[in-house]
Amino acid sequence: MPLEDHYAGDEAFEKYSNCFNSFWGSFEHQEELLNMVDGDFLIAKPIAYHLGSNFREWMHSRPPVLEGSSPIECMETKQGRNRLKCCLHRMS
User: Fold this and answer.
1) Does the model's pTM come out above 0.90?
2) 16, 20, 47, 56: which sits with the fewest CB atoms below 10 Å from its CB?
């Protein structure tokens, strides 16, 4: 079963992402990260929190949990975004 099949839904992901609002406010690379995630604040905030200044490398890596895709590639489709969101949610 693909990871995105375990996605808890947009409402749950939004609640999760909003846990990082205070960290996001002091993240120095907001603009660059937002460009990488097509302006999606909900995806950007947990990436910033969990990866910090290593976000660039991670966005181009191919973590096994993403089943051969990079986070950048996941941003290209709704299915990929859900896979990425599920991955981020599991980082908690």
Assistant:
1) yes
2) 56
C-alpha separations of 9 from 14, 15, 50, 78, 85 in Å: 9, 10, 20, 12, 9
Question: Measuring CA to CA, which residue among 26, 51, 27, 30 is closest to residue 41?
Answer: 30
Closest CA to 41 of 58, 24, 65: 24
State pLDDT tens for residues 18-52: 999 999 999 999 999 999 999 999 999 999 999 99
Averaged pLDDT for residues 48-76: 97
| 1 — pLDDT class (breaks 50, 70, 90) | confident
Q: How far apart are CA 29 and CA 52, in angstroms?
A: 9
C-alpha 50/C-alpha 56 separation (Å) is 12
Show the tokens assigned to 38: 């097509």
